[in-house]
Specification:
The chain has 172 residues and is of the alpha+beta class. The protein is 30% helix and 26% strand. It has a single domain, classed as Peptide Deformylase, CATH 3.90.45. It is globular and about 45 Å long. The two termini are 27 Å apart. Bound molecules: zinc ion.
Length: 172
């Protein structure tokens, strides 16, 4: 297993729409293992493959308190939304230091495939519903800053870009 680098906003790769997974092979399983290790190492509750630079529709998630309930969704799709909304203050491993209050459906039905390609459906509410919608956004090139006003978004983009540049200069 290996911890992979997490891309940070405004990296343009985070804007890519990810491709469906068709081969449920060793490459995919290696990617899932690496994503899982990367998520746990970063103390995140969810990670989409594009956040480690791989434009494939793969999500790993663990919202349990004991960090022992890994969930993997391949080619996930929200097939039904319920009308009620919840607001959570969301963070994102790709937008460090930023929280955004986002309104999302309180309950959704997800269709996805497991690591062997077997399709399943599941109903999600509360944090799981929020987390899945957040990660599916990543697969469609969307980031939490998109829910903020353009003024705020600009400010965050400039700040994170500056931090990235100074990190690169130090590394050089
Ligand atoms: Zn995120």
């Amino acid at each position: 297993m290996a911890i992979r680098d997490i891309l940070t906003y405004p990296d343009p790769r985070l804007r890519k729409s990810s491709e469906p997974v068709r081969e449920f092979d060793d490459d995919l399983h290696q990617l899932i293992r690496d994503m899982t290790e990367t998520m746990y190492a970063a103390s995140g509750i969810g990670l989409a493959a594009i956040q480690v630079g791989v434009a494939r529709r793969v999500i790993v998630m663990d919202i349990s308190r004991d960090r022992n309930d890994l969930q993997v969704f391949i080619n996930p799709e929200v097939i039904d939304f319920e009308e009620g909304q919840v607001e959570f203050e969301e963070g994102c491993l790709s937008v460090p230091g930023v929280n955004a209050t986002v309104a999302r459906s309180a309950r959704v039905i997800i269709k996805a495939q497991d690591v062997s390609g077997i399709p399943f459906e599941r109903e999600a509410d509360e944090l799981l519903a929020v987390c899945i919608q957040h990660e599916v956004d990543h697969l469609n090139g969307k980031v939490i800053v998109d829910y903020l006003s353009s003024v705020k978004r600009d400010r965050i983009r400039k700040k994170l870009k500056k931090e990235l540049l100074s990190m690169e200069n130090q590394a050089a």
